Amino acid sequence: MLKHLFYREWLLLLRSPAQLFQPLLFFVVIVSLFPLAISPDPRILMQIGPGIIWMGILFALILSFSPLFAEDYQDGSLEQLVINCYPLSALVLVKVLVHSLMLGLPLMLLLPLMAFAYDLSTQAIVSLIMSLALALPSLCLVGALGASVVLALRNGTLLLALILLPLYVPILIFASAAVVHAQANQSAAAELALLGALLVLFLVLIPPATSYCLRTAVES
Length: 220
Description:
Strand content: under 5%
Order of helices and strands: HHHHHHHHH
Number of helices: 9
Radius of gyration: 18 Å
Number of domains: 1
Distance between the termini: 27 Å
Shape: elongated
Structural class: mainly alpha
Helix content: over 70%
Number of strands: 0
C-alpha cells in the first residue's frame, strides 16, 4: 500500500510542475537579487550569504505547502482514507518524503551556484548541502503540520506562513550557524547534530499531530 501511495504522490507532483518550479524560481530570484540590492563587496556577501540563502529556502518552501493535502481534501480521497481507517501518519510521511525529494534534489543542484554568488568557500558549500539534507525533512514535516491546520480554511496561505515562520526559527539558526562556522574553517558538527536531533524529534511528534488535524478537517 505504501508503495502505491508513494507512486501516486510522485505522479501528482509530476503532473503539476508549477508546484515544483514556482518555489525553485522564487528561491533563485530572491537569493540573486540580494547582492544587487545590498553590496557587491565580497566581505559583506560572505557574512550575509548563509542567512540569505536559508531565508530564501524557507520562503520558497512555504509557497509549496498550501496544496500538500488540498487536492486529497477536495476530491474526497482524504475522506475515504479516514473512513477506511487508513493510518494517516503513513500518508503524512509519504507526502513529506516525496516533497523532500522533489524539492531537495533541485535545491542541492542550485545551492553551489547560489553560494558562489556570495563567495562562499567549498567547505561552506559542503556544510550548506549537508545542513539542507538534514533540515529539509524537518521543514517539510513542520510544513505538513501547518498545511493540515489550515486545510479547511479558505485562503489560508497567509495564516500558514504565520504558523510556520516561528517554528522554523530553530532550524534557521542551526543551519545558518553550520555554514558560518564552515566558512570560518571551524567545525559545524554541533549544529549538524542538533539538526539531526530536531529531525528525530519531529519524526516522532509531527505525524500523529498532523493525522489528528487531517481527521478533524475531514470530520468538521
